[in-house]
Amino acid sequence: MPVPDVMFCAQQIHVPPELPDIMKQFTKAAIRTQPRDVLQWSYGYFYALSRGEPLPVKERVEIPVATQKNDTGLTPGLLKILHKQLSEKEVVEISDLQRKWKNLCLPMEQLHSLLRLDNFADGVEWMKFFAIACSALGGSLLSSMKHACEILTNDPEGGAARIPYDTFAFLYSYLASLDEEISEEVTQSFLHALKEQVSRKDYMVGLADFTVKKKT
């Protein structure tokens, strides 16, 4: 059936006054985030926008260092988005995590692999999953904690990347407990020495603090 030849005039077409700004911000967000699947990411963007949730948008363009040996799709910038979206709840529904993960165009098989590292049957304790995700970025315990500090800090980019000692200790202890080669005694000894070192700084741990202490 042919489409009717209908003429529209300016008075018949109503464009909401806020639409141009919405589309401008959407375009900027897409450029910064560089999603692998624009349609899937767009769905997540407007879904979050309609509900007043944190948007799936990177703070700046991120160029991940991808290799054939380790190209997981997850990047520090994407993990930071997930943290903003999900960290308000201590325990996150698996379905909610899956939806946010999918809307960032991340491979679901990677999410399933990370979830298998702990028992999250009754919900995902967010900070534990965050720690596991940092380990996927970093490989070693030291580099995992470096990523955690850089994502969680309120310091300017390129600064000391400080986070509260209690947060650092929780993440470090949890990741160490997943490594059979690191004993509880070694973990507690390291954290005790670190706490003494940073006690003069309001219990804030920066990259230099734990890097130096770990190497000594």
In a nutshell, what does this entry contain?
With 216 residues, this protein is mainly alpha-helical.
Can you describe what's shown?
There is one protein chain. This protein has a domain at 139-216. It is elongated, with a radius of gyration of 22 Å. Mean pLDDT is 87; it is low at 65-70. The chain has ten helices and four strands. The longest helix is centred in the N-terminal third of the chain and has 15 residues, at 19-33. Strands 1-2 form a two-stranded antiparallel sheet. It has a two-stranded antiparallel ribbon with strand order 3-4. With 216 residues, the protein is mainly alpha-helical.
Secondary-structure blueprint of this entry?
Layout: H1 19-33, H2 38-51, H3 76-86, E1 91-92, H4 94-103, H5 108-115, E2 124-125, H6 126-138, H7 141-152, E3 163-164, H8 165-177, H9 184-198, E4 204-205, H10 207-215
Antiparallel strand pairs: 1-2, 3-4
Helix pairs in contact: 2-4, 3-6, 6-7, 6-8, 7-8, 8-9, 9-10
Number of extended strands? 4
Largest sheet, spatial ordering of strands: 1-2
**Largest sheet data:** 2 strands, antiparallel
Radius of gyration: 22 Å
Mean pLDDT: 87
Family: Belongs to the ropporin family.
GO molecular function: identical protein binding
Keywords: Cell projection, Cilium, Flagellum
InterPro entries: ROP_DD (IPR047844)
